Amino acid sequence: MQSLSNRAKKLEKKPMNFSERMYLPAIFQGLSITMRHFFKKKATIKYPEETRPMSAVWRGLHVLKRDEKGRERCTACGLCAVACPAEAITMVAGERKRGEENLYREEKYAISYEINMLRCIFCGLCEEACPKAAIFLQNDKVAPARYERDEFIYGKDRLVEPMPIQNL
Amino acid sequence: MVKITFDGIEVEVEEGTTILNAARKIGGEVVPPAMCYYTPLKGTGGKCRACMVRVAAGSAKDPRPMPKLVASCITPVQDGMVVENTTNPDVLAARKGVVEMLLINHPLDCPICDQAGECDLQNFAYEHGTSGTRYEEERRTFDKIDIGPLVQLHMTRCILCYRCVYTADQLTEKRVHGVLGRGDAAEIGTYVENIIDNEFSGNVIDVCPVGALTDKTFRFKNRVWFTKPVDAHRDCPTCSGKVVLWMRGNDVLRVTARKDEYNEVQEFICNTCRFDKKDANNWTIEGPRKIARTSVISANHYELPVLNVNVIPNLPGSTEEDLQSTPFNLGRQV
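The joint structure predicted for all components is written out below.
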């Protein structure tokens, strides 16, 4: 068959010369490349022990903040859930009872607040939508790998910021 | 019949019509917003000043402009009147001022408020206001009053539009709530801790343009935009029985009357329909309610795309039938 472009070159199979037939130079050439890589800077890190420095604007695991008096800021307004493009956030609102004023900031609060970390795409739109400055994406934490799917549904127990340690 | 020009659009209306209703006859973007005017209730209007317009020419006989902006909901039209609304920057500036005044004492607790998402004041402020506030003083607060097990009153959110007072006056026999006090101290209340228990009292929830009167049985249950509005009806001996069910899954979270495009209820419903029939089995469901695309209620509610548009003419009959039975033939014209 005639070539379409007329640029095809005919290859000739030459017989190998002596050094090529020994294969040794090629082996040493390959080994030297491997050896050179031993002394190069490594591209990988030992992850759980070492971590890479994160960008200041990195969007990682969510946190539900408390205010300066230790009350939960979230008022379950649902704006994060409606802003969420992955529909990862669900919540149930409840009315604050008498005597709980030190726990919740507003008269409405989230009884349950769940983020499905498998659905979440860490876009940060929830943080942008929040009118109460309650939800933030931390720049130093990543959702860790787990074995079961339901372990990725983060409830309030894992999302709410722990109470600040009181000065005794 | 008289002819007026509203924002450059000529419209012919009956004598005695208000400017606002003439604008509503045109419809669309030019209609001034209204917070206190409510068509089915007599005597409403003229309180919130949200609907102010400029009359550039009073009438054909006397074409002098009116000296000040007028409230369009209570000003009747005259033949040859020229009205400016969205075309006049003064009107828009005045409206911005009205938003600021209405929001002076408003707590802006929209994240907590159950009305958020279908609140007239929220829409009004969003469209005509500024995003910041200049107000630094303490906002007006009130002692909480319990006005019964069905209706929740949040006096701090009230803008004193008097709609609920007119509703109670004109729909029910004995009104127990009204506006107490004057000026800055004016508040909606039931003198001496009375309880609203009239059969039609729930309608004050629907007429309230803000979240001052909300449904206690829906209190903090869910956000409006997570519920799905569905038109439904039932045979009710006391009212028309035509309602909107706000559903989440198969649960009826809230029942309201049907509101038109200006958020006005034409057929009021009774308390039995509103508060007691919270089961989908009580209702005959007509279908999903049309919600404006701009509303937050239609956020994240996706509609099926229009597929299978007729591109090949004269398909054989059997192929047409096959296409009909596929689930994505909603927009198909056969």
